[in-house]
Amino acid sequence: MSISVNEKLKLTPLYEEHLALNGKMVPFAGWNMPVQYSGVVDEHKAVRNSVGIFDVSHMGEIIVTGRGALDYLQNLVTNDVAKLQIGQAQYNALCYENGTLVDDIIIYRRGYDSFFICVNASNIEKDFAWLKEHCPKKGVILENVSDDYAQIAIQGPKSRELITKVIDVKITDLAYYHFAEGKVLGIPALIARTGYTGELGYEIYVPASAAAKIWKGLLQVGAEYFVKPCGLGARDTLRLEVGYLLYGNDMDSTTTALECGLGWVTKFDKSNFIGKEALLKQKELGLSKKLIAFEMQDRAIGRHGYKIFATNDGEQEIGFVTSGCPAPTVGKNIGMAYVTQDYSKMGSQIWIEIRGEKKAAVVVKKPFFVHGSAQG
């Protein structure tokens, strides 16, 4: 992501901790964030094999409350919020009228008419403006509380053992995409069994003022599990191996919920929601492009924005790469891309233009890595 030299980067409450740990800082979504500490592969393997912690405080938090909160959210998102139980989280999408994506979000139901929403860092202001624009004058209260919270992700097979030592609530039986409210190292927190890595993990929302205390405490307590601080680099390779999408890469305001594969959270049987009509029409007519997964056959890496062709002579352009990287666990160079429907079938041969040369790749099924502990 390019950043203007005149644009002042935002700092998370853990910025000084990253510097103290020799984190390599880079611009990301308007924030100064650590891309790595000990190395992307080392951090990636720590999460797959033991436990790692991530600063994800750049993400945004919005609170929706009031007697009209449920109906309001039902009209805004593609998934069925009415099915959410108190203490449960739900992956969701906000769409424009034409079915393209405002953002992908997670909604946490804290009470009958109380919801807590996590939004992407680059979309905080945009999402809040969209929510305000469609908010009824009475019955719903909206609050952008992003500056009040820090978010830390604890991810990996040993994450439950680590977090159990620092919280005052029982989470042994906490199911995937559920959450509890309690204290972490004596600090009030929302403790969610969610994550972006494909491994067993938790994301904790804590007061920004207490973030450093909790970060240092997790590293100290987690030493026996060989916990490692992890940066954006490992976060990207981990999420790509399990096929999780990144807003701004794999989906945005030019792609619809169906094109990027979010049909599974698009509930056409519920009452009307923004974008429903357009998505129903697209479903009826069929998709012209589709997000696919690919593996490189030639020794090369397909990166974001690279053009894709039907043949190695480069005469027929059929799409572009959205994400790509070497996958440490899989041992292959992998990626995701949009291609025309004719080339979206499993096993289809495609050619990616890399530094002026066409490199062979093949369309495969997501996810690339299927043995994670996320639902263990």
Automatic annotation (TrEMBL):
<dbReference type="GO" id="GO:0005829">
    <property type="term" value="C:cytosol"/>
</dbReference>
<feature type="domain" description="GCVT N-terminal">
    <location>
        <begin position="14"/>
        <end position="270"/>
    </location>
</feature>
<dbReference type="Pfam" id="PF01571">
    <property type="entry name" value="GCV_T"/>
</dbReference>
<comment type="subunit">
    <text>The glycine cleavage system is composed of four proteins: P, T, L and H.</text>
</comment>
<dbReference type="GO" id="GO:0032259">
    <property type="term" value="P:methylation"/>
</dbReference>
<dbReference type="GO" id="GO:0008483">
    <property type="term" value="F:transaminase activity"/>
</dbReference>
<comment type="similarity">
    <text>Belongs to the GcvT family.</text>
</comment>
<dbReference type="InterPro" id="IPR028896">
    <property type="entry name" value="GcvT/YgfZ/DmdA"/>
</dbReference>
<keyword id="KW-0808">Transferase</keyword>
<dbReference type="GO" id="GO:0008168">
    <property type="term" value="F:methyltransferase activity"/>
</dbReference>
<feature type="binding site">
    <location>
        <position position="203"/>
    </location>
    <ligand>
        <name>substrate</name>
    </ligand>
</feature>
<dbReference type="InterPro" id="IPR022903">
    <property type="entry name" value="GcvT_bac"/>
</dbReference>
<dbReference type="Pfam" id="PF08669">
    <property type="entry name" value="GCV_T_C"/>
</dbReference>
<keyword id="KW-0489">Methyltransferase</keyword>
<dbReference type="InterPro" id="IPR027266">
    <property type="entry name" value="TrmE/GcvT-like"/>
</dbReference>
<protein>
    <recommendedName>
        <fullName>Aminomethyltransferase</fullName>
        <ecNumber>2.1.2.10</ecNumber>
    </recommendedName>
</protein>
<dbReference type="InterPro" id="IPR006223">
    <property type="entry name" value="GcvT"/>
</dbReference>
<comment type="function">
    <text>The glycine cleavage system catalyzes the degradation of glycine.</text>
</comment>
<feature type="domain" description="Aminomethyltransferase C-terminal">
    <location>
        <begin position="289"/>
        <end position="369"/>
    </location>
</feature>
<dbReference type="InterPro" id="IPR013977">
    <property type="entry name" value="GcvT_C"/>
</dbReference>
<keyword id="KW-0032">Aminotransferase</keyword>
<dbReference type="GO" id="GO:0019464">
    <property type="term" value="P:glycine decarboxylation via glycine cleavage system"/>
</dbReference>
<dbReference type="InterPro" id="IPR029043">
    <property type="entry name" value="GcvT/YgfZ_C"/>
</dbReference>
<dbReference type="InterPro" id="IPR006222">
    <property type="entry name" value="GCVT_N"/>
</dbReference>
<dbReference type="GO" id="GO:0004047">
    <property type="term" value="F:aminomethyltransferase activity"/>
</dbReference>
<dbReference type="GO" id="GO:0005960">
    <property type="term" value="C:glycine cleavage complex"/>
</dbReference>
